[in-house]
């Protein structure tokens, strides 16, 4: 995952031992799921599963089953078997390149969650096609957050916030215990991560942001982001970023990725249908770093997305709002 996780507790909280135990989970999860560790379970699957079934731990197998279910739910827009496409576009090594149409076509022959054979009885994984590779980057952070949250709750911790790389967040209880406000969460501008786009209160929910603001390259004047549509083999979508809120960090990680690929029209159509209660979409305007922000849902804003620096304190949004922010 190559992600830094942060656990936040209210001032004066006496839950440090539980927080340490929750943080210790990250190492074992990373050891199982990272494609950047040759000894991980995912790396072992990618090496051997085309030749033989590969047995994995129960947590890894459960996550793979959940991933397949989310692929079915999103009609293939989310798919953990995109490894060959990520390789073809150079994003595995974080050095983007424009592949030829033939390279994309060839990679697509090795992509598809339907080719992932899972045997629950033996907790084993097999590839139906040689050359396949899985990558849990679009769901692994959410899984880690959910498991860390369960660990904290098992120790009686009722107020906490955990984030993974700032793009995935779980907020439980209150920042100020008893306030019923939840936790103050800031959303970053899609191309200027040091600039806050908006602020909102979040309670007993998870949010995830999918976008291409950090990993992209330009080829002949066109911008290509790292989020690839597994059905076509090409970066897709009309958004700069998409933030969703749901009850599960694992689910919202996957659904945000799928709907970012599918585009804003699908976000509107699937609003609430797929279990997400809030959505924030940003799309590029004409000027560099200028964005339009569209929201769906009833937000408890700390600062609404807007052009000036003052913000609107403790404002409730309408069901659908559009804001334009200049560069």
UniProtKB/TrEMBL annotation:
Obligatory cofactor(s): Mg(2+); Mn(2+)
InterPro entries: ApbE, ApbE-like_sf
EC identifiers of the protein: 2.7.1.180
Class of the enzyme per the UniProt entry, highest EC level: transferase
Cofactor notes: Magnesium. Can also use manganese.
GO MF: metal ion binding; transferase activity
Reaction(s) catalysed (UniProt annotation): L-threonyl-[protein] + FAD = FMN-L-threonyl-[protein] + AMP + H(+)
Compositional bias of kind Polar residues: 318-327
Keyword field: FAD, Flavoprotein, Lipoprotein, Magnesium, Metal-binding, Transferase
Region of interest (Disordered), residue spans: 303-327
Binding site for Mg(2+): 138, 253, 257
Family to which the UniProt record says this protein belongs: Belongs to the ApbE family.
Protein name: FAD:protein FMN transferase
Source organism (scientific name): Novipirellula artificiosorum
Gene: apbE_1
